[in-house]
Write a structure and sequence with these properties.
Layout (H helix, E strand, L loop, with lengths): L2 E3 L24 E14 L3 H11 L6 E7 L2 E6 L5 E7 L3 E7 L9 E6 L4 E8 L4 H15 L3 H9 L10 H20 L20 H4 L1
Antiparallel strand pairs: 1-5, 2-3, 2-8, 3-4, 4-5, 6-7, 7-8
């Protein structure tokens, strides 16, 4: 569940960062800190069990805390005192992150993240100030660039380099607009089954060689 306890904290209540243990690649540095960030976690549990799951396993869900973005992880520490102090994920576990402002998807502007773990499927970080969204997105994007997924790199090579799952707000909106246009054109240009498009007889026949001379 990637739950953080008091043992994961350093003096002062901040997350204890990893130190190099024989390899510089394992060392972790703090990149950005965001206070008063509300966390909303969605699990893959059945809807009937979701409320019970949230209460028992996610007691800090939908509460405020401080979000830390490091060179390795995304860590959220709740403001409320509890045995479970927060949650943390490896940046490589975040398969997608994007700014969301669509009230139909979520009532508040947030940073939407898809998590590649067994139970938690989605996490939304809601900052107290809207202007923090771009800063939060930028920090997470930089950390993601520092932690490429080896399997995704192999897949990207096989697909010719495609498969980047980091989107900024304009890309999300433009992609949605492009999808709407494509759907509209498809409906307008659709030809009913069994109906041949009109054409003049011989329109696409090859020209006679004598006519070309």
């Amino acid at each position: 569940m990637n739950v953080l306890t008091s043992g994961d904290l350093a003096v002062g209540g901040t997350p204890a960062l990893r130190t190099a243990a024989g390899s510089e690649d394992e060392e972790e540095f703090l990149m950005a800190t965001f206070e008063r960030v509300e966390i909303h976690i969605t699990t893959e549990e059945d809807e009937d069990d979701e409320n019970e799951c949230m209460a028992e396993e996610l007691p800090l869900n939908q509460t405020r805390g401080t979000l830390y973005v490091t060179t390795k992880r995304v860590l959220w520490i709740g403001d409320r005192t509890a045995p479970r102090v927060g949650y943390g994920w490896e940046v490589s576990q975040i398969t997608l992150h994007a700014i969301s402002r669509d009230p139909a998807a979520f009532p508040q502007p947030c940073l939407y993240c898809q998590i590649g773990t067994e139970k938690i499927s989605e996490v939304r970080f809601v900052p107290a100030e809207d202007k923090q969204l771009s800063e939060l997105f930028s920090a997470l994007s930089k950390s993601a660039e520092m932690n490429p997924d080896d399997e995704e790199d192999e897949d990207d090579e096989n697909l010719g380099g495609e498969g980047d799952w980091i989107y900024n707000e304009d890309e999300v909106e433009n992609g949605a607009r492009a999808a709407q246009i494509a759907a509209h054109l498809d409906s307008v240009l659709h030809i009913a089954p069994g109906v041949e498009p009109p054409s003049e007889p011989g329109q696409f026949d090859d020209a006679d060689e004598d006519e070309l001379l």
